[in-house]
Amino acid sequence: MNNASRHRTDDSLIALHRIVRATELYSRDLAQAAGLTPTQLRVLQIVDSQDSATPKALAQQMRVSQATVTSLVDKLVAHGMVRRLPSQADRRQTHIVSTPIGHERLQQAAGALPQRFVRAFQALADWEQAQLIASLERVAAMLDAVEIEEAPLPANGEIHRESA
């Protein structure tokens, strides 16, 4: 390995560490602002934006298993942020709907979202967005993280909102 290659390897590891650290800080800020993990927030965002969603649709959109969605929804139901309603068209289906509490929590979380990234990403040309996604997916593959489902962070337990 030559010097230039070593420096690029070091630079890539430093950049990866910064991304991981930023994600940890975001998770902590989100937990303090709204009492949610990033994955719980994503479920709430999807449900709130679509008026309702089935667990199967949530699992497909989030690229996680239905068991993961069930666990996330169970926690959101326990905190009064979503409700399960039986489908009127098909008794076998259940719809997840946001409650006023859930909608309020989304508003509280708005300040904790990485809006700078979202705005910068959306400002990129389509080809740049596709290139960035491909690069990030390549990094995930290099870390053997392709088959890992997104899980609520931190993995060591539930994040609870701090009392004021």
Describe the structure.
With 164 residues, the chain is mostly helical. The chain has a domain at 3-112: Winged helix-like DNA-binding domain superfamily/Winged helix DNA-binding domain (Arc Repressor Mutant, subunit A, Orthogonal Bundle), CATH 1.10.10. The chain contains seven helices and two strands. It has helices at 3-34, 38-50, 55-62, 66-78, 100-109, 115-123, 126-142; strands at 82-86, 94-98. Strands 1-2 form a two-stranded antiparallel sheet. The radius of gyration is 18 Å and the shape is elongated. The N and C termini lie far apart (54 Å). Mean pLDDT is 82; it is low at 151-164.
Structural class: mainly alpha
Output the CATH topology of the domain at 3-112: Arc Repressor Mutant, subunit A
Silhouette: elongated
Oligomer: single chain
User: Compute the gyration radius: what is it?
Assistant: 18 Å
> Overall pLDDT, averaged?
82
Secondary-structure topology with pairs:
Elements: H1 3-34, H2 38-50, H3 55-62, H4 66-78, E1 82-86, E2 94-98, H5 100-109, H6 115-123, H7 126-142
Antiparallel strand pairs: 1-2
Helix pairs in contact: 2-4, 2-5, 3-4
Question: What's the short story on this structure?
Answer:
The relative contact order is 0.14. The chain contains seven helices and two strands. By secondary structure, the protein is mainly alpha-helical.
Keywords:
164 residues, Arc Repressor Mutant, subunit A, 7 helices, mainly alpha, disordered C terminus
